[in-house]
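1st attempt posting a full record on here, be nice pls
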Amino acid sequence: MNVALCAAFLEEDVWENRLVTAAFPKKVEITECNSIKALLKILELKPFSLLIVVLNGVAGLEAVRQLQENAPGVPLLWISDEDYSLFGYQYRVTRFLNRQVSDAELREAVAGCLKLSEKEEEETVK
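the predicted structure (as tokens):
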């Protein structure tokens, strides 16, 4: 499964390692970037099963807004330092987590998002 990760500069590797562990035993290929601009360009090149935004404050909010405009059918996991869960609901984010998320919570969120993605892929094939 292809997963796109948009995280702040120098944090991509930390989040990538946590996400690979959270997705286990599923194999995921993670494409990382550190700006929404870069992620939008990558979205033009290949499809993703899951989009993950780990950006703080307004940067995360803007990233989520743009992703919902450009990839509305792709499950979206948003991790932020502030409680933007109301905005997450407004933008139909699949899951919203606080930045201090535990490994168990992250594993549950990633599993739920990937399961949703698999279900949507199955329905598309039918």
